[in-house]
Amino acid sequence: MTDLVVRRLLIDLKTPFPARWNGGDAFRSAFFNALSMSFPAGEQFFIDSVRDGLKALSSDRQQMMAREVQGFIGQEATHRRIHALFNEHLEKQGCDNWIERNAARRRAAHAGDDLRNQVAATAATEHFTAIFADWILRHPEALEGAEPRLRTLWQWHSAEESEHRNTAFDMYQALGGNHYWRIRVFKYITVTFLGDVARQTVRNLWHDGSLFKWSTWRSCGKLLFARDGMIRGNTGLWRDYMATDFHPSQHPAALSQQWLRDNTSQFAVVGHPA
User: Which domains, from first to last, does the chain contain?
Assistant: First the structure.
């Protein structure tokens, strides 16, 4: 089990920030904004599915996983709150959070699904966020020129995503989830997660007035589809999830651990699981 620490990020999110806060780059700002707009609803779903999963375990299993689940919930609740504050500024800038409404509709449509499939959806999404998070920590140029407080926000979030990448996967295994449904749900999440983020990014770019500019799509290609871009450079890690013997701990977490060691002044520890 992983000992997950709950941290409070020590940055000011009351002061407004520019629409193109990420180095003045329209695409990078719109894309990261789309990710942030998806997080509060997504993280609430993760919290609920893992919490419900814990309740469904035997008492012995509950004792084994309770400490890690408590830390997972604490971290995700903190991410939800921080990104809600971030998203409030986007709303004031006139951005329409379509992805949040769509997530609510999809969650209602799947409310009666088997709990294991809900945990599988959490594990699948956590796989995406973990590999993207590690990529962000490996590629500081993705946040080059960003507002310092917002760069810190994304790097902190990335470090914690990598830190708790095992929890939902282990919960799925503990609930008796099988490989077939894990992969089936993963493929579904691949389509819906990437599709929703892409659509919200396009909506953000339309609002920004930069949707049809060549510079926008040049930046898109560099960020996502360069040889080591966020999408193209992670296809191998994405495929790893398909293996019958896969476990998230097989992927490295050294950059996450290093960032958390090197940036203790950026956060305060507010809780250790009891």
Answer: 6-271 (1.10.620)
